[in-house]
Recover the amino acids of this structure.
């Protein structure tokens, strides 16, 4: 089995996780969470989102969170930014990396961004341009890369075309999102091949259909070296269809350890952190590793 | 990705699933369950166990279940049998296939069978010999093929030696069990290679650490064409460490469908069956696909 020697875990629990939890977590708890994730060895930790608080009230405290969070040397704290207004707020908070989020389908672009696909590029282009001019790194997410709840299976060529538009703006990385979790391993490898290989690609899988880790293995076999994951599986509950169902970082780390792939994360410290956060949210973590390793 | 064209799903929900559920299910419900599994297209359905009822009270109704179950043409209904006494009972019930269950480690042989590894072979040998003489097919399970709670990591050579002993008795298939779910994809491929390839091997993964489906993908890539799985993930609850955590048949079927691998199972009928059984057990199915596809 051909596999990379080292993988970068792009930790999304504090943003993609908490924005999909019902509970609104106090800003001090979020700051402690970010500190614990860094203590556990994670070096890329998406901190929050500058989407308008009307849409994501869970992360309305973005500026305050960045103000009170001690940012560690050697750790990246990207933040989600939808547009120029969000970029302004992110710049005021002194961020060094932003992430934009596009859609691979017309329907989801309308539903999530209230724009056509062409209009989403028009919104992102000046945002990315200004961010790069300010010396920021810019990452791009692409949603609905495998299936779309309204459009069904999404053609690989359509995903590649949309992803290239974002990369050509100057994004350093494109994270291919299986937003509804329907993709399977062969589809993953087909999509990566259609991009001409893994260069500048990351993967972002949801476990809605139980496929997230198998799909990750397929992506690693295709040479991908950045994997998005959420500490404790934050943002998803196995008993709710509406769940985002992010791949749990601990389950990923367990597999990487077994495969002898370096990642830099201390599993015990991460499990302790996820147990701590689960207590704050008042429900158990859906991560299998966290469940198996939790003190009883 | 090199993959088999067709996979046989060896359905263990009625036996391995129900024997690990707290609730004791009425025999009529079990019979209906077996009928529904066959209706859904499963052709190998482990029905029950002739282990002494003292050890597995959940399946004390084995003889009665086989008496009232309509056995469909073209469907195999293997039953678990530990020894000659169990074989006698199975023969009285007119079974055509039995499964024996050995351990790859000394400690688990002692804990599960109250025997040393050598003594387990001595127990199985006359059982298998008599079963074969009676025209039955015999399958062998091998437990603790990856890790053991008392002994830690289990050396591949030790597993191969134990597995060969069972195959040499005349078992048509050896199911490699990751009883505590700690194995990862590379270990799976290493073990299959150590057996000299996938011939006569099946795999039996538990999702305790979230690895079951990724490990299955790795086994398919190594050429394995029989995969054990449990309808609705019966026998495991994601919120309990003690959970067996069998791979859910539905999650496996979703992956096989995506990979274009034939299996003969009607996913919708299977999900309906697992929802029905979850209602009887009074708790939701841990299968992600069942959760995503359940009527709300």
């Amino acid at each position: 089995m051909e596999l990379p020697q080292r993988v970068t875990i792009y930790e999304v629990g504090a943003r993609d996780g908490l924005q999909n939890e019902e509970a609104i977590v106090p800003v001090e708890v979020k700051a402690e969470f970010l500190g614990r994730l860094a203590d556990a060895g994670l070096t890329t930790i998406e901190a929050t989102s500058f989407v308008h608080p009307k849409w994501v009230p869970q992360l309305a405290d973005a500026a305050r969170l960045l103000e009170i969070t001690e940012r560690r040397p050697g750790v990246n704290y990207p933040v989600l930014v939808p547009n120029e207004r969000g970029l302004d707020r992110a710049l005021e908070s002194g961020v060094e990396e932003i992430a934009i989020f596009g859609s691979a389908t017309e329907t989801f672009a309308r539903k999530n961004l209230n724009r056509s696909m062409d209009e989403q590029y028009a919104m992102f282009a000046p945002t990315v341009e200004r961010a790069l001019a300010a010396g920021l790194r810019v990452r791009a997410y692409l949603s609905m890369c495998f299936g779309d709840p309204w459009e069904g299976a999404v053609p690989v060529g359509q995903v590649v075309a949309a992803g290239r538009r974002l990369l050509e703006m100057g994004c350093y990385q494109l994270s291919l999102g299986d937003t509804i979790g329907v993709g399977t391993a062969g589809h993953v490898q087909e999509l990566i091949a259609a991009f001409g290989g893994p260069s500048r690609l990351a993967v972002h899988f949801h476990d809605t259909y139980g496929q997230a880790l198998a799909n990750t293995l397929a992506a690693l076999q295709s040479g991908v070296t950045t994997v998005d994951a959420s500490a404790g599986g934050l943002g998803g509950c196995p008993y709710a269809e509406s769940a985002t169902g992010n791949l749990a970082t601990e389950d990923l780390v367990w597999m990487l350890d077994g495969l002898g792939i370096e990642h830099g994360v201390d599993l015990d410290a991460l499990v302790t952190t996820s147990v701590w956060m689960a207590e704050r949210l008042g429900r158990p973590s859906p991560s299998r590793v966290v469940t198996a390793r939790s003190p009883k």
Chain A has one domain: 8-293.
